[in-house]
């Protein structure tokens, strides 16, 4: 009886794990397709467009920083992760997206 109960628990955990992986993949695909539709946001473009730095922080990896931008006439923020990696070409990288 106990073996049957353990087997059911393992089966449920596998189903939950598969569902979580499926949900994560769906989420990532939605993000990537939305990112392809939007124009590429750059830090240089934000600063030239009148955006101001509202805050920044360094994540745990210490190779990059999160920068939060605000614009006086916009109701949303833009967050960028920027960094420098000597193993990449180009060495500087950034990823910016709107927080609505």
The mean pLDDT is 76
Shape: globular
Separation of termini? 52 Å
How many DSSP-defined strands? 4
Q: How is this structure best described in words?
A:
The protein has 100 residues and is α+β, with helices and mostly antiparallel strands. The protein has two domains: 1-37; 43-99. 42% of the residues lie in helices and 29% in strands. It is built from two helices and four strands. A four-stranded antiparallel beta sheet has the order 1-2-3-4. Strand 3 (77-84) and strand 4 form a beta hairpin. The radius of gyration is 21 Å and the shape is globular. Residues 17-35 have low confidence and may be disordered.
Architecture blueprint of SSEs:
Blueprint (H helix, E strand, L loop, with lengths): L1 H36 L5 H6 L3 E6 L6 E7 L6 E8 L7 E8 L1
Antiparallel strand pairs: 1-2, 2-3, 3-4
List keywords for this structure.
100 residues; alpha+beta; 4-stranded antiparallel β-sheet; 4 strands
Q: Could you give a quick summary of the protein structure above?
A:
The protein is α+β, with helices and mostly antiparallel strands and 100 residues long. It has helices spanning 2-37, 43-48; strands at 52-57, 64-70, 77-84, 92-99. The model is unreliable at 17-35 (pLDDT under 50).
